[in-house]
Specification:
The complex is a heterodimer of chains A (143) and B (236). Chain A is mainly alpha-helical and 143 residues long. Chain A has six helices and one strand; from the N terminus they run αβααααα. In chain B, helix 9 (163-177) packs antiparallel against helix 10. The chains are: A mainly alpha (143), B mainly alpha (236). Strand 1 (20-22) of chain A pairs antiparallel with strand 1 (47-49) of chain B, so a sheet runs across the interface.
C-alpha cells in the first residue's frame, strides 16, 4: 500500500497506482463529513428560512391569478405553454419518462465516453438549473 | 454462594454487567454466538475503490430519505388528513406545537434537497455511462426511485390544504386526466372523485405515508443489493 498523507494517497489513486483503499479510515471519515455537512445545511436552511403557511384552500373560489405553482411542476407548465394542448403535453412527458427508464436498452454500445452523451447531458443540466430557478421563484409557496 | 459454584471468569455479576453494557454485550455474550468483532473488522477493512465526491449523492439521497421518514413520523402525530382539519393541524403545528415549525421546515427543505441530490446522482450515472450492462437493471430501479421522489413532493404538497397547494393539485391531476384512454380513470383514482376535495387529501396522505414509502423501501433494498453485488462503477 502506498504510504503518506491522505492527499498524496488520493493523488496516487487517481493516477492509477493504487485502486482500492480500506473502508476505514478514508471512506468512513468522508462519509461522516458528508453526513455532518448535510445535517448542518438542512438545519441551517430550516432555521434561516422558516416556511410560511398560505391561507386555507377554498374549492369554491376562483383561482388566485397570483398563485405560485409548485416548483417541481414548472417544467411541465412551461412545456404546456409551448405545445398548448394538455393532451399532447402529458403524452410528451410520458414518452420522456419511458425513454428515461429504458435508457440502457436504447444505448447498448458498451462505450462509456462522455462525448457520446454530451448532447443529452447538457439539456439535462439545463433542466436541473431550470428546476433550481423555479424553486427560487416559488419561495413562500404553501409547503 | 460457595466457592465451589463461583465461575472462574468473574461470576454472575460480571456476566450481567456484560449484558447491560453495550461493549460488554458486543464483545461478550453476543460475540460468543455471532462474530460481531470479526464482521466489524471485515467491514472496516473492506477495500473500496477511490471515488469522487460526486459519488456520494446517492448516499446523500438516502440520508435525506431517512431525515424525511423521521420528521414525517413526528408530523404524523399532529396531522389529520381531512378538510378543514388538515390546515388547522398544520397551523397548530407551525405555531404552537413544540419545535413543530422546525420539523415541518426540515421536512420541506430535506424534500427539496432529496430531489436535487437524486437528480445529481442520476446525472453522474448518466455522464459516466454507468447505466450500461451489467448495471442496466439498477438504472431502471433507480429511475423508478427518481419518479417516486417526485411523487413524494407532489402528494405531500397538498397535505397542508392551502390555496397554492390546492391549485397545483388541480393542475397536475387535470393534466394526467388528459392522457389518452386511461387518463380520466387515473385522475378519478387520484382525486377520489371528479374534484379535488377532502377525500383527495386522504388519498394523497395514504400515498405519501404508506404507498410511496413502501415502494421506495422495496426498490432501495434491491438497488443497494445490486450495488453491493456489482460494486461502485469504476472511474472512467
Amino acid at each position: 500500500m502506498t504510504t503518506g498523507s491522505y492527499k498524496v494517497r488520493m493523488k496516487h489513486a487517481r493516477r492509477g497506482d493504487q485502486k482500492d483503499y480500506p473502508f476505514y479510515p478514508n471512506h468512513l471519515l468522508r462519509i461522516l463529513m458528508v453526513i455532518m455537512g448535510v445535517v448542518v445545511v438542512i438545519a441551517a436552511m430550516s432555521a434561516l428560512f422558516p416556511l410560511p403557511l398560505d391561507n386555507i384552500a377554498d374549492p369554491l373560489a376562483h383561482p388566485d391569478p397570483g398563485y405560485k405553482a409548485l416548483w417541481i411542476l414548472k417544467p411541465a407548465i412551461l412545456l404546456g405553454d409551448i405545445v398548448f394542448k394538455p393532451g399532447l403535453t402529458v403524452v410528451l412527458i410520458a414518452i420522456f419518462a419511458v425513454l428515461f427508464v429504458l435508457l440502457p436498452i436504447l444505448d447498448r454500445s458498451g462505450q462509456r465516453s462522455i462525448k457520446r452523451r454530451a448532447l443529452v447531458a447538457v439539456p439535462f443540466l439545463l433542466w436541473m438549473l431550470f428546476l433550481a430557478w423555479s424553486l427560487l421563484l416559488s419561495t413562500g409557496v404553501s409547503g | 454462594m460457595s466457592g465451589r459454584h463461583r465461575r472462574p471468569d468473574g461470576g454472575l455479576l460480571k456476566d450481567l454487567l456484560d449484558w447491560v453494557g453495550i461493549r460488554g454485550f458486543i464483545y461478550g455474550p453476543l460475540e460468543r454466538r455471532i462474530s460481531v468483532k470479526g464482521a466489524l473488522e471485515a467491514a472496516l477493512k473492506k477495500p473500496i475503490p477511490h471515488v469522487s465526491w460526486w459519488s456520494y449523492f446517492g448516499g446523500i439521497t438516502f440520508l435525506l430519505f431517512l431525515i424525511q421518514a423521521a420528521t414525517g413520523i413526528l408530523l404524523m402525530f399532529f396531522y389529520i388528513p381531512a378538510d378543514p382539519e388538515a390546515h388547522r393541524t398544520i397551523l397548530y403545528l407551525a405555531g404552537q406545537a413544540p419545535f413543530g415549525w422546525f420539523f415541518r421546515t426540515i421536512h420541506h427543505w430535506a424534500a427539496i434537497g432529496m430531489m436535487f441530490a437524486v437528480s445529481i446522482h442520476v446525472l453522474r450515472v448518466f455522464v459516466k455511462g454507468a447505466y450500461q450492462r451489467p448495471r442496466d437493471l439498477n438504472w431502471v430501479i433507480g429511475s423508478a426511485l427518481f419518479f417516486l421522489t417526485a411523487g413524494f413532493i407532489l402528494t405531500g404538497d397538498l397535505l397542508p390544504w392551502t390555496r397554492s397547494a390546492y391549485w397545483s393539485a388541480v393542475w397536475w391531476t387535470d393534466l394526467i386526466g388528459n392522457f389518452p384512454v386511461i387518463g380520466h380513470q387515473i385522475m378519478l383514482f387520484l382525486r377520489g372523485g371528479e374534484n379535488v376535495t377532502g377525500s383527495t387529501i386522504t388519498r394523497f396522505y395514504v400515498f405519501h405515508v404508506f404507498g410511496l414509502p413502501a415502494l421506495s423501501t422495496l426498490f432501495m433494498v434491491i438497488h443497494f443489493a445490486i450495488v453491493r453485488k456489482l460494486g461502485i462503477s469504476e472511474p472512467l
